[in-house]
Every structure is written in C-alpha cells, then in structure tokens.
Please model this.
Amino acid sequence: VQLVESGGGSVQAGGSLRLSCASSRYIYSRNCLGWFRQAPGKEREGIAYIYSSGDSTYYADSVKGRFTISRDNSLSRLLLRMSSPKPEDTGMYFCAARDGNSCSLERNEYNYWGQGTQVTVS
Model:
C-alpha cells in the first residue's frame, strides 16, 4: 500500500476534521492528487483535487467553501480540511493519485488508491 489515509473518526456537524494521506515520494510527485468519498450504498465520488504545483485546486459543489485540499511537501502528505461538516458528508474517504496534464474528479482516471478512512458526522 503506497497511500495511507488517517484522521477519520466521528465529528459533530459544524465541527472540523483534518484528514491526512501519506504517500511515497514517487506517488506524491504525480501531477494530480485527489480526495474521494463513498457513502453507504452509493458510488465513490470525487470531491477535490490539487495539482502537483499546489497552486490549482478544484472542488465538487457539495464541498466547495467548506473543505480545503492542500499539500505538505515536506512530509509528502495530502491533506483535507473539513470545516462545518454535515451528516451527508459521512462516508469512507480515499486519497488517490494519477498522472496526466489535466486533473479531474473521474475516479476511473486515478491509478493509485489508499484503503480509506471512515468519517461519521452526526
């Protein structure tokens, strides 16, 4: 396993949580790093990505303005700051990486995946 998520847990609605994804230098250097989530009974959906330069990000409408994706280059970690989470944000959260000039939230385009960390918002 080359991507390892951590930081999940239970949080109250309106609180905050920070997820972290540790990776090898090789995977961390891929052009696109993203966060995905999967709620029970639903398909896995992309919620945010960031380019390797760190200066360009994109968010799904469902999390825009509440979640922040960032990179910690000193530790080769991908981060996701969850602010004001809602019960509908509950699910398994995955980090992923891919190559390619243009990043996207299409899960099928990502080559490397972690095993996920559970987030429960109540």
In short: The first strand starts at residue 3 and ends at 6. The chain has one helix and eleven strands. The CA atoms of residues 8 and 119 lie 5 Å apart.
